[in-house]
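User: For documentation purposes, I need each entry recorded in a consistent format: the amino acid sequence on its own, followed directly by the corresponding structure tokens. There are two entries in this batch. Please keep commentary to a minimum and don't merge the entries.

Assistant: Recorded as requested. Entry 1:
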Amino acid sequence: MVYRISTNDFDFLSLIYDDEEVIEKLGEDNLIQIECDPREYAPIWQKLSVRFESALGGKSDKPIPDLQVHSGHLFLSERALNTLKDLIEPYGELLPVVYSSDNEAPKEGAIFNPLKVVSANEKTSTKDSFGEVASLFFDTEEVIFKTDFDDYFGVFVNKVFEEIVTSSELSGLIFRKDLSSCVG
């Protein structure tokens, strides 16, 4: 079973990068906050400070999630990092960050940059007349990966990942069986 993971924006604060800090530390060609392609950041990475704020204009006393998808990457809280590090590390890069919110003191976490790319099943995956993904299927069940079929925007995981997140009660993610869209 493969799932597309998406973020629970209603119950949790949203990850915010400081654009100036990203440019200062990583350069103008490495805008991790908006670039989804599977490029390596580890050789140039300098620990970033990220914040969590209310993105939907709701109350700001929401908690920081343990996990959150952002531009084809996965934020991991300190707790999520301790739980998932060994499982996901072979599939990408764990990039250290310090995270905080108005209600929570700074803590150490990471941004997981998935570098494993899996091709979509070309016979069953389709796009509509606007070039948007209409259906998406894979012939493999890697732990965590991206695909060029959706321009690397989505993050996909297998049942093992889902079971560990669920049994560890890690917050913030929605597991979708419909792989074509991150909404609905």
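Entry 2:
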Amino acid sequence: MSEHRTASGGGADAVWRLRSRGCWQEAAELLRPSAASDPEAALSRAELLIEQCLFTARHWDQAEDALRLAEAVVVTTGQRAAASCARGFLAYLASVLGRRDRLDEAQAALGRTSALLPPKAAGRPLLDFRRGLVAENLLHDPQAATMAYRRAHQGATEHGDALLSSYTWRHLATLALAAGDQEQAREGFAASLRLREELGFTVGVAPALAALAEVSEPAEAARLRAEAARLVQALGGVPVWLAAGPVGVPAPGTPPDGRRWQDVSGTIG
């Protein structure tokens, strides 16, 4: 979720530009030469390919291979924590997307991450967010999810991680909407959209538009969904949970980053 821009100089910018447009394969290829010996590059490459699974529900083997490489080359405690956090997220995604139940693996990996990270470590907000996803969607414990998301949101704000903040805003808004708080939900969805547009995280803008449409007046909701549909089409059908809808962009209760994914295994080739 975070901005893993660990390459130096123009390389980092090139990876970000590709990633933000949903070109994960190309971005990962830029990191391939250094990933075999540079733990940070290996971790960044693994996270890119795991994010590709999130948005496409495909390419699982590539993500697993990249993560195994990262796990093999990490050296420091912080790097081992980052690899374990990525392992937990990949296991979570595989469970949510219906490939197989890997809840135990996700919990164990995130637990290892917590044991490795000091309380104020930069990796804590991402860990808290991913623990929130597990609590909400695999353990079905919205109270625990809310607490984890709030910790993640505070940490992301303190560390200046705008992309992670865009996720925490949206997930807190989703829980607020489920609890009937339309005003808080609207604030969160709008903040998430604003951050993604400011960052240029194009592949994440359509879900943010569709989410905001859920708490907008009918005319505005129709405009937001139409804009989201155009983005999905321009990006070649990603995110898949939006492309799978009857009119291109369904009501956003389904993405596999934690918002009540409905089984779409029969529609993903």
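Summary note for entry 2:
The CA atoms of residues 54 and 256 lie 6 Å apart.
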